[in-house]
Write a sequence for this structure.
């Protein structure tokens, strides 16, 4: 695989972006990502039409969403969980499943302590769609490329064991691609086909990011150009309590 | 992107397998997939270390899981939904969310009518892990390659709009990769990191399959070799009602 691959012939390429340094509050994350992608020979720089998936952790660090917690108390972030939630759905032992201010339903309001310096907890970005738009605009300004940005986080699922990465914010790409009304291969109208492509792209990115190797971003090449429009996780993915059957 | 790409340098390649013909009951699906992958220049044949994702629809057709329904009654498959379910969780209008005999929680027991001839409905395979093992073994016998097979289906999510593809069966690959006890980049033990890699791989595959273009399979190259062990969606992903907070 070389930097010349752009995913023709209906295929995709998913590449880790290595070498993003430890991110600090007020760092210019767009500049760090542009530099790391240019220096990584597997990526060969960011390009028009790329989808850049960035983990919540580095976005929260750059946006100074770190809060001091008691390093000797493993439950010291629990008051933060309640503060960041608008509704507690379930508790079991130390686990809290809640609805965050953004409308996400997840464990511990998306707050965790891994890959953060001891004594600190990282909150989710205040508005992850806006975080994605800022990164997209910053990268366009610095590198002159028009790409899509997704901010990812790791969530559990109600009915399935194991976690997967999902999108919490996006810019420059549809969150959901609606195939309702198009026909299937039998010429009959398709039924339920609102595909959450940002979540599928984010899941694909996680496969190359690992959890302990400090890869904070991935690039996906070859994505269907018709998906590149202004999208929003909040507007397209977040399900309101009124339409949800399980809250 | 050429057939010589095998996803080095930490990256993945995701390729549609085009040219799988319309599948009929008792067709040798393994042979059809081997032939289509060999004839598709983007794929260049199946190889050792590939992950082959195959949609439930063609697996169900090959396993003769089709049931006749009244073509003029759009709700004629609803009695099938109840028959294939062990527990109805929610009803809203025509929508039924239930737990299937396999333990999957999904809409309409995984039964749908799209991409099926009019007057027929496709049930899920009886044992999708076994379906995946059969395909894996059949491909090994015919093409002499050792690869992993995932059977995919399209499910909704409790808390998020839009559907994504998830794994309903797998063979030759871990369903969940457990990183508990490994350390993060700060040298601290990671907390919740049981990653449902089969679901992330399946989501990645869906990005190249489309819904109406008759692409029934995709190949993923460059997958971490340590994930290739005998896995099971039923044993690793299906959450028992006892440990689930929302049933």
């Amino acid at each position: 695989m070389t930097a010349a691959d752009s995913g023709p012939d209906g295929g995709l390429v998913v590449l880790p972006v290595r070498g993003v340094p430890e991110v600090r509050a007020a760092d210019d994350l767009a500049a760090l990502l542009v530099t790391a992608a240019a220096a990584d020979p597997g990526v060969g720089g960011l390009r028009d039409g790329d989808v850049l998936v960035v983990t919540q952790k580095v976005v929260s660090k750059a946006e100074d969403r770190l809060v001091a917690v008691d390093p000797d108390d493993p439950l010291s972030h629990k008051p933060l969980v309640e503060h960041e939630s608008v509704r507690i759905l379930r508790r079991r032992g130390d686990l809290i499943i809640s609805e965050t201010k953004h409308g996400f339903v997840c464990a511990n309001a998306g707050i965790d302590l891994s890959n953060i310096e001891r004594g600190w907890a990282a909150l989710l970005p205040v508005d992850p769609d806006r975080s994605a738009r800022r990164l997209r605009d910053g990268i366009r300004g610095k590198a002159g490329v028009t790409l899509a940005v997704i901010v990812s986080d790791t969530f559990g699922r109600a009915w399935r064991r194991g976690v997967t990465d999902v999108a919490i914010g996006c810019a420059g790409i549809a969150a959901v691609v609606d195939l309702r009304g198009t026909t299937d291969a039998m010429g009959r109208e398709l039924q339920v086909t609102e595909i959450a492509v940002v979540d599928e792209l984010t899941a694909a990115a996680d496969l190359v990011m690992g959890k302990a190797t400090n890869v904070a971003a991935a690039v996906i090449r070859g994505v269907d150009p018709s998906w590149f429009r202004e999208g929003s996780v909040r507007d397209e993915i977040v399900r309101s309590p009124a339409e949800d059957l399980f809250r």
Summary: Chain A has a mean pLDDT of 90. Helices of chain A lie at 29-39, 56-62, 78-84, 128-143, 197-209, 233-236. The radius of gyration of chain A is 18 Å.
